[in-house]
Amino acid sequence: MAQSPLRALVNILSNAVDGIEGVYEKNGATFPNLDAPYTPSPLEHDPQVMGLTAVLLGAAFQLMMTVGTPIENITTTYTCQMYMTASLRYVVETSIADVLKEGDPKGVHVDEIAQKINAKDPALIARVLRYMASRHCFREVSPNVFAHNKLSSVLVKTKSFAEIQADPLSQYDGMTASAVVGHTSDEGFKSASHLSEWLQDPTSAPHAFGAAFGVPDMWQWFEQPGNELRRRRFATVMKAIGAGGYPDRIFTEAIDWKALPESATVVDVGGNTGSVSLAIAKAHPHLNLVVQDLPQVIDSLTKPFWSENSPEYVSNGKIKFQPHDFFTPNPTKNVDVFFMRMILHDWSKEKSVEILTHLRAAAQPSTKLVVFDHIILHACPDPLMPPENVPNAPWPMLANLGYGIGGITTVFDIHMLNLFGGQERTVAEFTELGKLTGWKLEKAIPGPTGTIVYSAV
Predict the structure, then answer these.
(1) Domains (ranges, CATH) in the chain?
(2) Which of 87, 219, 382, 453 has its CA at a distance of 20 to 30 angstroms from the CA of residue 7?
């Protein structure tokens, strides 16, 4: 009898677990316990572990969808996800995660939590935390007593609870998940409630965010009175993105940097802090790098970042900072490589064409353009993707591994659509952008963030 999809998924899960545990055992480590607070491990970025994790996540979610009834999956698992978002916003804005961190590690009763955050009804706190604990964020260690676990511990802010109370405006300073959760569950969530209406009439506003708040873009909204905390929180989100979270090898091995001459100029377009430039500079110190961004970004983020992390590159002239708006002609000429990280996904096709056209006008015939952006993989086989650049999806899994890869990149895609009218792109869409702007796609490699390499034509 042929193997059932159910049994095949179970076998995929078993094999993936064997592989992950094998890597950890080989390195003298044990896989982190869900019930313990999160401690970063370098093995998280091990290529084998990352690949197996994507398969495991995709198979586990597909198994859940296979076993659960359609009504339950649609109405409870999907439609009601909004309550997890709302609950996350509540525990972040009230700093409940920080109260638990400073309380008894064995658990804190909701009465004590309520007293700390000045809440009137401890029972409401219990209901929210129990909802979250039932989804493996927090632990209910005894009735109405809650403690951190692996997931909830990343909601802790860098400041103490007393410091948060004394200066709420700065509570998201420091790079933690709380800023990302706060931003997404606040302005992102409010915008999403307008997404359906906007999709049905995209001419009604520039994007769902514009429909929700009545503004042309998020940047103008941040400048409105009353949005000071949101503006500062979003700056922290951008710093966190600039600081990484992706393995340096994605950037340092994107092309053959060593083949470039000592005189080579590499321009980081819209570079924010320039953290990717720093990773490239450390791996390939012969390169001359230029970080470009808006004047206020250069002054407030880029220069302080380099002064703190690698002032020697500034003093020896291997790194330069250049105020520049990428919707205007690029002032740097004779460039060997332009690169952009997480830029094009903020913008529509029309705006992305404008950006790439300016870069092509400044390029030499030999110039390369490297784009680091998520690559959307179809949920079915894609004849445009070379076999070596797509995940090995065992039957009966989706071609993009479902939740393991496609589920993540498509979240970013809809989030960009929601906030900016932007998008993550398929290989075909990246190819089209190149054809419209004088760039030929050489290769597109999916990964934690995709690598798209163009040559000038």
Answers:
(1) 5-67 (no CATH), 77-156 (1.10.10.10), 177-242 (no CATH), 246-381+419-456 (3.40.50.150)
(2) 382
